[in-house]
Amino acid sequence: MSTRSPDVQRMYLQCEPTDKIENWSDDRIWSEFRARLATRDGWAPKEGQIFSKTVVGMRSFVTEPMQYGRLFLAGDAAHVVPPTGAKGLNLAVADVRVLARAIGEFYKAGREDLLERYSQTALRRIWKAQRFSWWMTSMLHRFPGADEFQHKVQVAELDYVTGSRAASTALAENYVGLPFDAFED
Ligand SMILES: Cc1cc2nc3c(=O)[nH]c(=O)nc-3n(C[C@H](O)[C@H](O)[C@H](O)COP(=O)(O)OP(=O)(O)OC[C@H]3O[C@@H](n4cnc5c(N)ncnc54)[C@H](O)[C@@H]3O)c2cc1C
Question: How buried is residue 168: exposed, middle or buried, by Cβ count under 10 Å (0-12/13-18/19+)?
Answer without folding.
Answer: middle
